[in-house]
Design brief:
Layout lengths: L16 H29 L2 H24 L5 H11 L2
Helix pairs in contact: 1-2
Length: 89
């Protein structure tokens, strides 16, 4: 049995399509939230700069909150076996 050195990728592991698109989904959700807030501010105040500031702040806050929620989730059995496979256990 060959010993796997830490830090080298496992050539047999290929992430699924949903695993690869997960970051894009999180960015899309954050972008949709910020777009809603930006358009709402623009329609109520008619000030473009205030709308852009609200859009940017909402995007960053939503992205951080979603990331913290994802980090807090416990992996299920299939994710745990995948993590163990990647770590060489």
């Amino acid at each position: 049995m060959t010993k796997k050195t830490p830090g080298t990728p496992n050539p047999a592991h290929q992430p699924s399509r949903s695993d690869r698109l997960k970051p894009a989904e999180l960015l899309g959700i954050s972008g949709a939230m910020s777009l809603f807030v930006g358009v709402t501010i623009l329609l109520t105040t008619r000030e473009l700069m205030l709308s852009v500031i609200g859009l940017g702040v909402t995007f960053i806050v939503a992205l951080v909150v979603i990331a913290m929620l994802v980090l807090g989730m416990k992996p299920n059995a299939s994710e745990q076996t995948d993590l163990d496979e990647q770590n060489g256990h």
